[in-house]
Amino acid sequence: MDLRGNAVTWLGHGTWLWETSEGTRLLVDCWLEGNPSTPEEFKDPAAVKADGILITHGHFDHIGQGGAEAVAAISANGAPPTFAMFEVAAYLGGKGAEVTGFNIGGAVEVAGVTATMVQAVHSGGITDDDGAIVYGGPPAGFVLEFPDGLVVYQAGDTDVFGDMALIGEIYSPDVSVLPVGDFYTMGPRQAAHAVRLLGATQVLCGHYGTFPALAGSPAKLRELVGGGVDIPDTVPGVRLTS
User: What is the pLDDT of residue 15?
Assistant: First the structure.
């Protein structure tokens, strides 16, 4: 896989740590503590060194167990304000975390990367401290444009949707990070169509294997897509480089 000198580590489920060729580190979602697929050395949010954080939506398995506490623990290591959907940012800010809210179509600079928020097809409610679900705004994905020109589509939690073709047309991502587990997101069958819509040639798979219900896999996606697309096996904690 050609990452143009950048690197990425899947930390399990929907959490990814990108390292740019310039040495900055960008964390996408932050479910570490309590995540059964996160390697032990990454489970403590305070131990994860990041120069920026992006959050796709407000579900507990993306904002982290304890929500604001997880974000605040990572931010305490010197990360700039976390970026998230406006409603998620407002919620986490109300819990004491430093978060900047923006919205679909907007772009921010974080850890030296330009991150444009794009749509996703999912839900986005936040589980409050008393167990009630509060409004978290719509879910999102991100298009990441790295300093050296690498473009990554970080889909977040989503089903396939027709406007993935627009994401492919507008941004021409070099790497697409897609959920394939099924049950809570699209599975391999839908992800194969996402690959086609995006015109993807390099795909990283996530959001699978965490729980028995998430039965999709990179192997199944490879089988459905056939040749011509680089879809490596992803293993939590294993750093991938170009």
Answer: 96
Report how far apart, in Å, the C-alpha atoms of 228 and of each of 92, 143, 169, 231 are: 42, 22, 19, 9
Q: What single letter denotes the amino acid at residue 75?
A: S
- Specify the fold of 7-241: Metallo-beta-lactamase; Chain A (3.60.15)
DSSP 230: B
The CA distance from 62 to 176, in Å, is 18
Which residues have C-beta within 8 Å of that of residue 75, sequence separation ≥ 6? Answer: 53, 81, 82, 97, 98
Query: Do residues 151 and 138 touch, judged by C-beta distance below 8 A?
Result: no
pTM, two decimal places: 0.96
Residue/partner pairs of 134-139 with CB below 8 Å, 24 or more apart: 134/91, 135/87, 136/57, 136/58, 136/59, 136/85, 136/87, 136/88, 136/91, 137/57, 137/58, 137/85, 137/86, 137/87, 137/88, 137/103, 138/57, 138/85, 138/104, 139/56, 139/57, 139/85
Domain borders along the chain are: 7-241
Strand segments (E) across the chain: 7-10, 16-19, 25-28, 52-54, 82-85, 99-102, 107-110, 113-119, 126-127, 133-134, 140-145, 151-154, 175-179, 203-206, 239-241
pLDDT tens by residue, 31-82: 998 999 999 999 988 778 889 999 999 999 999 866 666 676 666 666 667 8
